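Hi Q.,

Before the meeting this afternoon, I wanted you to have the glyoxylic acid prediction in hand. No need to reply - just skim if you have a minute. The sequence and ligand are here:
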Amino acid sequence: MSGIGGNLRIDAERLWASIMETAAIGATEKGGIRRLTLTDLDRAVRDWFVARCTEAGCSISVDELGNIAARRPGRDNSLPPIAIGSHLDTQPTGGKFDGVIGVLAGLEVLRTLNDAGYQTHAPIEVIDWTNEEGSRFAPAMLASGVFAGAFDRDYAYSRTDREGLSFGAELERIGYRGDEICGARRLGAFFELHIEQGPILEAEGKTIGIVTGVQGMRWYEVTVTGMECHAGSTPMHLRADALVAAARMIGAVQAVGLAHAPDAVATVGLVEVRPNSRNVIPGEVFFTIDLRHPDDAVLAAMEAALRERLEAAAREDGVAMALTRIWDSPSVHFDAGCIEAVEDAARTLGFGARRMVSGAGHDAAYIARVAPTTMVFVPCEKGISHNEAEKSEPGDIAAGADVLLRAVLATDER
Ligand code: GLV
Ligand code: MN
Ligand code: MN
Ligand code: MN
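Predicted structure with the ligand bound:
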């Protein structure tokens, strides 16, 4: 890359200050963030983001899924924008970095371009995608999924949380249901900076992960139905205990993961027991399953094994079992040109880097269907994420943002 763009660097302190400012919105006692999608706290961080982008001279558009795009014009505004983004929502016990750094690094890129008076050919957009986490409204990556045509709008609106509140109503309530049709806009390219959420970069002493794709993910919901009965007077051999059966099923989920290790992972993360009273034999258990593998064929085989094992467990324990797959996000391969732009940027800036596949889901996985896309990873301590203790070094995040800036400018100059 020639010219001024080659020497531009983001302001590491300003970026860190933005991260710490947003970390106060929904801060938890243990140093993390609880900022579930479409809550008042989500509205507060969105308002913050819109205000900062407006101050940076951007125009703001909000689509019907609540995705916020802040646009810095280029020389030729008929060109599709080069977009940078991620998500501002968090897990119930999330950290300060998951998602947030990808949005705020985008803001930092805009501020850096402003300070330098640098004009891009294409407009640059920074996007906050709604409901990436999927912990309140399943599935994850819901609004980037609508943008990419993986789901339709009304399906997204109809998703409910565990209290029965709908995505559509909550979006409306926080005032972020926009007019723009979701997915109507074309993107010239999409780049997402994120913490790795795994231990590889740290273990290898590398600063930058060049992300070549995302593994396949499937989500399921299971309801086990037995018979609610008195814990004192019902003999052991005459029970249909839904929780005992579910416990066996959870063991089977782990076994399916282990059978395809080390690449496979299988998790039960949410369990609800009804009536959840200490002297009532559980009559119903609801639980979720998250299966992942980089190879879609193996993932399909894992699902077949899972079904078989859960049905067998239900038969043995004399309970009914309903297993529903609610999400299938196939493995993704990112764009070769974008990957090269990130690799070149890391090399030119002198950062240790390696290619890797993402184990976590990201909005980029869906956006890759409609625009040339890739991601930049930076290390996080011990690979710990989806945890309030999540930690990432300011210098590493700044390095990732510089790589992002350079990859974006190189793409713009192409
Ligand atoms: C989203 O955070 C996922 O990878 O599950
Ligand atoms: Mn994330
Ligand atoms: Mn996450
Ligand atoms: Mn994620």
